[in-house]
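Submission sheet (multi-component)
Chains listed below:
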Amino acid sequence: QKEVEQNSGPLSVPEGAIASLNCTYSDRVSQSFFWYRQYSGKSPELIMSIYSNGDKEDGRFTAQLNKASQYVSLLIRDSQPSDSATYLCAATGGFKTIFGAGTRLFVKA
Amino acid sequence: GAVVSQHPSWVICKSGTSVKIECRSLDFQATTMFWYRQFPKQSLMLMATSNEGSKATYEQGVEKDKFLINHASLTLSTLTVTSAHPEDSSFYICSAYTAVVAGVTDTQYFGPGTRLTVL
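Outcome: structure written.
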């Protein structure tokens, strides 16, 4: 059974802090990894993609991938209340995408 | 780029009626579209995978005769909920898969979702 595991949270951080979201995956075939943000009552929105080991930065977001450990993370710097949402991790391999159940993030003003 | 639309955004219907939901990729071609269902405070549940010009592949436990999927073109897939009942009330979300759009490879772009309420 291919799985993507995330801590369901909620993860609560103060405004301005760094939020760290983690994800592990079980399928070594997975080649591509994504983070989606989903606000309550809305559909998921792609915010980051990462394909190779290391860090990838985009604005306040940094995705980290370690294929040896089968681990993906998302760091959100200078967290804002508007970042409060559920963050979904996804892994794609062999034309199949597996989504994690999501981590709820709450940024306190 | 990579915009996916869904129509309608919300629908209320009586029990026993059928509802059709459209999913369109507006600025790219999608050989594959996915249909998900999401209940309140729960994660996405993949219902079926739809490939253009062929029959959809349904996930275990999803009734293919109840949830009819048609993928007639590279930009349009439809989901029809037949003889809807209150337990079918949910948030239905489609996504379109593309190999490469704007430098992002191998990913799905989601439509805004359709909220179905069956009375």
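Remark: Chain B has a mean pLDDT of 91.
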